[in-house]
Amino acid sequence: MISAYILITMQPGKTDKAIKEMRAISNIVKISIIAGEYDIVVRAQVKNLEELLEVTDKLQVVEGISKTTTQIIEKEISVQ
Amino acid sequence: MNIPKKHLFYVLAISSAFIAAAVTGLDSFVGGQSAFKYDPWAFAFAIFFVGAIVTLLISLFFSVRLNSKSIGAKVLDPSFSRVRLIQKSELKNHLVAGLMNAINTVGYCAIVSTVQDPSVILSFSQVVILYLLLMESITEKDVPTLVEVQSSVTVAFGAILASISLKGEFEIMSLAIVFVLINPTWAIFSIYQRRLKLMRIRNKPNDAINIRMWNVFFSLLFTSLILLGFDLATNGGHLLAGFHAVLSPYLFLLLAATMSITFFSYVLYIRSLGLGKASINNAIRASTIIFAIPFSLLLIYFGVMGPPSTDPVMLIIKVIGMILIIFGIISFAFTVVKAYIFITIKPGKNHKEVMDKLWDIKGITHVTVTAGKYDIIVKVSTRTLLKGYERIIKKIEEIPEIQKYRWASVLRDWENI
User: Fold this and answer.
1) pLDDT tens across B185-196, in order?
2) Closest partner residue to B411 among A34, A70, A78, by Cβ?
3) How far apart are CA B220 and CA B30, in angstroms?
4) Contacts A30 to B, Cβ<8 Å
5) Domains along chain B with CATH numbers
6) Could you read off the pLDDT of B320-329 as tens digits, one per residue?
7) How far apart are CA B360 and CA B364, in angstroms?
8) ipTM of the complex
């Protein structure tokens, strides 16, 4: 199982609709709207890199997304 | 199903609270049976004896695999895979939690058999959040914020007011057992259950189902030991009375019913303990008082409890208490600050070392090493931005391997469960 954070930059004013579309993508487990350098952080969980490509492909056609930066998780410690 | 992360925590805690209210209603009924009415010791033993059997069966059922995933993982806790033996590292936490649960249950059984009104019993037990806040500030070296203190006090006072029974009586006698026995043991029990939930077993997060199952086993062990010692010292026959009661099919079925419902209440509770601080969790569970009302009414209807009071003053005070509890809970709910921190490490520095240093900072809930523009992404959860600076940013700046970091506050989030 591969997890990745995808950092997304949005065009102004299209966040709400874009989030609705993103929530329909099955491999996305978490979506956070953030304030800072990026606008949205998405966490994806996929079986292999090919599936990750599918997720980013799907994200790139969501209206309002202008740029995605993918960070593949190599190691993780967490409370859950 | 997509549920906003913040809500997931509350959904878990509130459903567990509702189930807990149902269980207390049922327990009051069972405690009123002649075998247990004057023998809370036997009651506690019978609960855990039947509980151990029922819990094992339920856990085994949840271990059954459907399409490579266990039923338990699908329905209750995604971290669960199958029933397993405990690891050496878990043993100490399980021993403490089991002992505390054993003592707690004996006290609880004593109260349930005498008071019988679930809306009172549950109100008493809510004062536990004050103990928890105090303990958290000692063990986690974390000073509670004003909001936390305010809300806890509101909930606590609300709970005391709401503890007036529907019969219009204020049960002072039982308060002593609650304060000396039930609340401290419950507080320690919660903290150790949380520690267990936060542990990683074979590099995977610990799961609530195994934690609950082993807790029942250890509680049975301690209850039996305590009872055996007590019986030998006083020449009593509580252990035998407990065994005898379990042999009655009617009582066995009643106990099996309360213990299987309790199982779900605890599993949801343990899961929510892993998501938030123990004291906040308990504040939310304070809502069980409200859920207890319909069950108290049911008990009155079936004649287990005496007729309700018609004194308006007492009932108004009870309602005010409940409103205070709700406000206390809401003020907890709206004060969580979450953020991501994107970190770049100086070239040639060891990622593992930085990861461990970051993980030691209180308030950091995820540390991930990533390949891409940033080296590490950290997730933070804190009660105020000031605490975020004092507790987290200051500490991050002290780590020499970190070249630069960017803080990004979370405005809203969703999680797929």
Assistant:
1) 988 888 888 888
2) A34
3) 19
4) 5, 413-416
5) 2-333 (no CATH), 337-416 (3.30.70.920)
6) 887 887 787 7
7) 8
8) 0.90
